[in-house]
Each structure stands twice: as structure tokens, then as C-alpha cells.
């Protein structure tokens, strides 16, 4: 039930794929769904694989998004070094959440909940995709891949298929 609900709310269905232009309404719905989601729902028996270290792919996505320049980004980069993955999206997509060792890094004073994001350069066969970096109360929280096609992105698409990340709030 939860999976279906989250999947529907987070990944949405195509409405107006306006040539890859951003869709503030879809993003807003994704934001609301994420904020309403209970934190760390995967902490339950049967998930012995969490927490676990970041994979190289996850680390690359974080580095890519944190390559942008915005307030608090230095602290967030430091947090990546002491972060572990403790949640993967139950729909099977590559979205993940992390926990940061708060004794080993300092909080970031960045815009929340999504200080930086990136979008596909082109729609592509299964795209477009959006990458959202989440921060809660100063701590790195995770990365969502937002997708609109039926095909679940089990891995993050190559980062060169994304435009350079941009920081929020946008002017
Ligand atoms: Zn998912």
C-alpha cells in the first residue's frame, strides 16, 4: 500500500512533458509527498543490508549535485564522507536516503528541503529525469530521482545526460 502510494505520489504520471522544461507543480507534489513520508521507513526486520556505505554510483551523484555553489555546500560535502545509506526507495528506483554521523561533521546552513537539483538535458527514451538533493535541519537526507515514464530507473542515468545542477531558491 505504502509503496503504491509513494510511487504514485513521488513519481507521478506524465502530464505536460513540455520539452524538458521544469514542472514546478510536479516538483511541488514530490516535495509534499516526501515531507509527508515517515522518516526511515526501511528500518525494520528483513532489511539487514542497511545501513551500508554509499556505492560509488551514489557517491558520484552526490558529488555531481554538490558540485554546484550555494550556501552550506562545503558542509554538505563534508557530510558525504560520514554518511551511510539507510533507505532505498521501495519502488526499485535508485532514490536513496542517508544518515550522517552528526558527531563527525557539522550541520549545513543551506536552503531546505531541496537546495540543489538537476534535470535531464533531453527527454530521451525513458526520461526526462530530475535529481533532487534533500537536506533536513542541516543534514544531508538523500537523493531522489524523479521519473515520469513507466520504466523504473534502477540506476542513476549517466550524469553527463544531466544539465549542470542549479541551486534553490531560484530567482
Ligand atoms: Zn522510487
Order of helices and strands: HHEHHEEEEEE
Beta-strand portion reads 15-25%
Helix content: 10-25%
User: Which residue ranges are poorly predicted, with pLDDT under 50 across at least 5 consecutive positions?
Assistant: 1-21, 41-46
| Overall body shape | globular
The whole-number mean of residue pLDDT values reads 83
* Count of folded domains: 1
Name the hetero compounds present.
zinc ion
Largest sheet geometry = 7 strands, antiparallel
CA-atom Rg in angstroms: 15 Å
Summed up, the helix count is 4
| Number of β-strand runs | 7
Q: How far apart, in Å, are the first and last alpha carbons?
A: 38 Å
Gist?
The protein is of the alpha+beta class. It has helices spanning 2-11, 24-36, 56-65, 73-80; strands at 52-53, 83-88, 96-100, 116-119, 129-136, 139-147, 166-167.
Can you walk me through this structure?
- With 171 residues, the chain is an alpha+beta fold.
- The chain has one domain (2-40, 54-167).
- Helix content is 24%, strand content 21%.
- The chain contains four helices and seven strands, in the order ααβααββββββ.
- It has a seven-stranded antiparallel β-sheet, covered by helices on one side.
- Strand 2 and strand 3 (96-100) form a beta hairpin.
- Helix 1 runs antiparallel to helix 2.
- It is globular, with a radius of gyration of 15 Å.
- The N and C termini lie far apart (38 Å).
- Zinc ion binds next to loops.
- Residues 89, 91, 93, 95 line the site of zinc ion.
